[in-house]
Design goal:
Number of strands: 7
Helix content: 40-55%
Strand content: 5-15%
Number of domains: 1
Radius of gyration: 19 Å
Distance between the termini: 7 Å
Shape: globular
Largest sheet: 5 strands, parallel
CATH class: Alpha Beta
CATH superfamily: P-loop containing nucleotide triphosphate hydrolases
Order of helices and strands: EHEHHHEHEHEEHEH
CATH topology: Rossmann fold
Strand order of the largest sheet: 2-3-1-4-7
Oligomer: single chain
Structural class: alpha/beta
């Protein structure tokens, strides 16, 4: 079973990805991770990618798909995998569609974790940080003393990118990028929309019900 996992910031995608990988024994493939791994191991693809990264540029799609193809050709994914962070755009999705037949693979389902903006803002804007690195959430993981770190007693602060205006901007960028992808996979009849506003076990229950069909 081969899966693509989509979800906006704050959707709990990382939590669900781990649960999916554990239950269904599929390899969790984060494109960020495999990109960094190639750079760290100084592979030919990693050396090429590092040139762009060092220049502060995005790794081009042509190189990224080569890195993805190299990863999907490895023996450990033959029992199934879950792509997380790829594709992000229509050209990337089209490139993936072109390489999969050469690997004798196909995507079985695209899981789209859907959460209303107001819930995402609530989740993301509640984070509070301490200079010692400890993080809290005003609703889900509050400190024992409001505004103070349990660990070092330091004052907690609200990061600029965790404030509502910044979050809404991030979500707008995500939607502009991802909605065409959702439409693309919808036309292929392989997308499953998951209610990501529910509690974590309920979300996984819905995901499991979808994946059990395969």
């Amino acid at each position: 079973m081969n899966i693509i996992l989509l979800g906006p910031p704050g959707s709990g995608k990382g939590t669900q990805a781990k649960m999916i990988a554990d239950k269904y024994s599929v390899r969790h493939i984060s494109t960020g991770d495999i990109l960094r791994e190639n750079v760290r191991n100084n592979t030919p693809l990693g050396v090429e990618a590092k040139k762009f990264m060092d220049a502060g540029q995005l790794v081009p799609d042509s190189l990224l798909i080569d890195i993805v193809k190299d990863r999907l050709a490895k023996p450990d994914v033959q029992g199934g995998y879950m792509l997380d962070g790829y594709p992000r755009t229509i050209p990337q999705a089209e490139a993936l569609d072109k390489i999969l037949p050469s690997l004798k693979q196909k995507i079985d389902v695209v899981l789209n974790i859907d959460v209303p903006d107001n819930e995402l803002v609530r989740r993301l804007s509640g984070r509070r940080m301490c200079k010692c690195g400890r993080s809290y959430h005003v609703a889900f993981n509050p400190p024992k003393v409001e505004g103070k770190c349990d660990e070092c007693g330091g004052d907690l602060y609200h990061r600029d990118d965790d404030k509502e205006a910044a979050i809404l901007n991030r979500l707008e960028v995500y939607k502009q990028q991802t909605q065409p992808l959702i439409d693309y996979f919808n036309k292929q009849g392989i997308i499953a929309n998951i209610n990501g506003a529910a509690e974590i076990p309920k979300i996984f229950e819905e995901i499991s019900a979808t994946l059990n069909k395969f």
